[in-house]
Amino acid sequence: MTLGPRIVIAGAGAVGCFIGGLLAGGGRRVTLLARPRIQAEIRTHGLTLTDFGGMAQYLSPDDLTVAGDPACLRHADIVLVTVKSRDTAAMAAQIAQHAAPGTQVISLQNGVGNRAVLAEALPGFDLRAGLVPFNVVPLGQGGYHRASDGDLVIEDGSIDLTGPLTVPGLATVTREDIEALQWGKFLINQFNALNALSGLPLQKQLHDRDWRRLMADQWAEAHAVLRAGKIQPKLTAPVPPRLMPALLRLPTPLFTRIAARMLQIDPQARTSMAQDLAARRPTEIDALQGEVQRMGEALGRATPVTDMVLRVMEWAALANEGLPHLPVAALRAEIATGRKR
Q1: Which domain of life is it from (predicted)?
Q2: Of 335, 272, 20, which is closest to residue 136 (Cα–Cα)?
């Protein structure tokens, strides 16, 4: 019998455990490289994977290979990098130290700078960008719930990796325009901070026109910065990025009809940044709004909405009290205050 490639999930948190668990359940040879807390949870409870469509899959501790030593990378044929952006350089150094040149390394991370960080540390590796269109909610005791849908998307390459990375419950596709799609996901991820500041489930927030108007203003601002920088983002959804603000600003009854696919998410789902802020963990705000602000400054473009989000997220992190549950009117007032400074 021919054994398939050995896959290491480099940074098995919520997304990594969900993807790695589905791959393992589909018969792939998977090692979850994880922090001690996640290791202990999996070794005690295994993994229970669910989604908003009714999927449910349990893998016992005996079904899973979990590691804390990056030396497990030595045997990898494919490495899926799922660490937060702030940890990319450290993980790249571990891959460089332990994995063999030529290993396929795929970044499945938020933000747009991770591939470059990996490339600098990993010459001679088959490096590809990718994106995860769905969000995953950690439920505790090895439970992970996929709260929205979509296929994994990875950069096309000389070796087809869609087969090894496609199993029941998880489809993977390749695209040549991955950079444009990553910038599209970057725009979508600008919503993460507003969701965290609201304290609301994302579906409930999207049903509130005042919140959508603020989301639209943030999107339009970030999109204008990207276009000024000669960046043309694309979305996996059939909506041109330039039309997203108009869609968000529609009256709610019309929005819910036109954007029905956007609303096909678990009613209790929150963004990863909301999960991090609630758990008092560092967020990825610098890789998202921080990048928009830096690009705006370099291009001489004002970014008042982005500036406000960065300020208020910093205050929320310093308060260390979890989700702040701020009303949209308070954020609008802070934009106006920031313009007067």
Answers
A1: Bacteria
A2: 272
DSSP string covering 199-239, please? -S-HHHHHT-HHHHHHHHHHHHHHHHHHHHTT-----SSSS
> At residue 180, what is the residue type?
A
Q: Which domains does the chain have, with CATH numbers?
A: 6-176 (3.40.50.720), 182-340 (1.10.1040.10)
- How does pLDDT run across 314-329, given as a tens digit for each residue? 999 999 999 999 999 9
Q: Please choose, from the candidates 154, 140, 42, 58, the residue with its C-alpha nearest in 3D space to the C-alpha of residue 106.
A: 154
Percent of the chain with pLDDT over 70: 99
Place of tokens 């260390």: 320
Angle at 261 between CA 256 and CA 263, to 5 degrees: 55
Alpha helices in 26-170 (DSSP H): 36-45, 88-98, 114-121
pTM of the entire predicted model:
0.90
Q: How far is CA 29 from CA 11, 12, 106, in A?
A: 16, 15, 16
pLDDT in tens, 115-130: 999 999 999 999 999 9
46: Cβ–Cβ under 8 A, 6 or more apart, which residues? 58, 59, 60, 61, 63, 64, 142
- Residues in contact with 142: Cβ distance below 8 Å, sequence separation at least 6, in sequence order: 17, 41, 42, 44, 45, 46, 47, 48
Tokens of 38: 């996640």
